[in-house]
């Protein structure tokens, strides 16, 4: 097994970093890694905003309700970007609504996430820690305002990284056999029975955000996390429309 796979199997979310910035050469290499990520149809529907202003980081942390976000030495926001290509076409008198439809938005979201994961794998190969910040969707409209994003762009995910200053426990994962099927989806008769061992294993895990308390079993976490709406996240679709993406052609007519 090579070192890259070993690092991936040892992945931990790092929330506390040493107060040290990485060398410019490392940052340049990570940007090149992001740039060379697979992209749908070669259209490169993503951009990266490096958040270096500490006051801006604090605003992101407040918006995302995670104070440690402000302590990430490096914070990059990966965004869906249809603005760039649309304007290239517009300058050539060739723009059309197909360029900003839902299909292209999904391609852009995928491009942004794949690019972020490329960077995450590269970071961990260098001994760095990473933390994905999906909390930018707590109030996506606010993030758009903070980053001064134009129409036809949309924040996909944040990534904090740097030299780790903690060693969290490896978080258990559900048996891969419950997530892997051949040729068609498999439905089980009793899911609680299937995850019984995993439920027990999860209660042995300590999340360093609350290090004195073990986490709930996975089955208990489902209604708490998946079954509740985080404030303002129910406005994400509305914000998507405000950004100029055409989700339904009927809306345009």
UniProtKB/TrEMBL annotation:
Domain of life assignment: Bacteria
KW Membrane (keyword) present: no
Entry annotated with the keyword Flavoprotein: yes
InterPro entries referenced in this protein's UniProt entry, alphabetically: Flavin_OxRdtase_Frp, Nitroreductase, Nitroreductase-like
UniProt keyword list: Flavoprotein, FMN, NADP, Oxidoreductase
Domain Nitroreductase: 11-61
Family statement: Belongs to the flavin oxidoreductase frp family.
The protein, known as: NADPH-dependent oxidoreductase
